[in-house]
Every structure is written in C-alpha cells, then in structure tokens.
Amino acid sequence: MTVKDRIDQNILRELTREGRISNLELAERIGLSPSACLRRVQELERLGVIRGYRAVLDGEAVGRAFVAYVAVGLNLHTKSAQAAFERAMAAAPQVQECHNVAGAIEYLLRVEVADLVAYKRFHTEVLGTVEQVSSITSYIVMGSPKDLRA
C-alpha cells in the first residue's frame, strides 16, 4: 500500500514527530476536521501503513545507556543457519534490532546494555556461544546527533 496523497503524508509526518498527539491537534495541524482526520488515521492503521506506536525511552534511565552496532558474519549460508541465528537473537533481550543485510556480513544488530562490562558479557556469553557465528565486529555508539527511530 502506498500513501494516497499529501494529506496522508502530512498525517504520517506529524505522527512520526509526535505519536501521542491528540486527534484534535493533529486535525488542526493538517487542516482537516477531527472526524475526517480520525477516519484517515484509522484507514492508515487498517492498511498497515501505521504499524504501531512506541515510547522513546531514555537509555540511561532504563539501564541501557551503552549502545553498540554489531556486524555478524555466519559460518554457514543456509536458511536453517539463518533461522537458528535469528531465534537466538530474538531470545536475547540485549538485542533491540536484528537486520539481515547484504554485503560482507549477514546481520547487523543494535545492542543496548548498561555498560561495557554488560556488553562484554553479552559478546562472550550470548553472541559468542551461537554456533552459526563466524565473525563479530562491534561499533560502539559515542553519540547520536540524529536518531529518528521511534
């Protein structure tokens, strides 16, 4: 499904910026009546264009201030090896994102933990024990001047 028109694009832009905006405020910003705005938002939800709403958490406040992107190579390039790796990552609470990517590696992970000690534990005791893993390269996030994930 693609977005119908500029009104839908504006609705999505505003909801991306502020997902908790009231329908009344959203309608005012978009230039629609509240009922028309609500119908459009509900239709975007029904069609799967809007897949959900999330809270953006402060990593430090929830004990996940240490963030690393981890490039992972697999030793086998089979569907079953990928499925096993993906199951292991789904079970690891430290892994906030797991992306199967094209290129020199198979996966890119976003890992969030309390600190370097917790990351080393994850690296050794979780990722290092997954038999399909052949290479691990860690990229430690030092700052995020732009982060539009919601």
Tags for this entry?
150 residues; alpha+beta; four-stranded antiparallel β-sheet; 2 domains; single chain; Alpha-Beta Plaits; Arc Repressor Mutant, subunit A
What features would you describe in this structure?
- With 150 residues, this protein is an alpha+beta fold.
- It has two domains: 6-46, Orthogonal Bundle (Arc Repressor Mutant, subunit A), CATH 1.10.10.10; 66-140, Alpha-Beta Plaits (2-Layer Sandwich), CATH 3.30.70.
- Helix content is 37%, strand content 20%.
- The chain is built from five helices and four strands.
- It has helices at 6-17, 23-30, 34-46, 79-90, 116-126, and strands at residues 66-74, 95-100, 107-113, 133-140.
- It has a four-stranded antiparallel β-sheet with strand order 2-3-1-4.
- A hairpin with a 6-residue loop joins strand 2 (95-100) and strand 3 (107-113).
- Helix 2 (23-30) packs across helix 3.
- The radius of gyration is 20 Å and the shape is elongated.
- The relative contact order is 0.15.
- The mean pLDDT is 95.
Order of helices and strands: HHHEHEEHE
> What is the C-alpha radius of gyration, as a whole number of Å?
20 Å
Low-confidence stretches: none
Mean pLDDT rating: 95
Write the CATH homologous superfamily of the largest domain: Lrp/AsnC effector binding domain/regulation of amino acid metabolism (RAM) domain
Helix content: 25-40%
CATH architecture descriptor text of the largest domain: 2-Layer Sandwich
List the domain count as a whole number: 2
CATH topology of the largest domain: Alpha-Beta Plaits
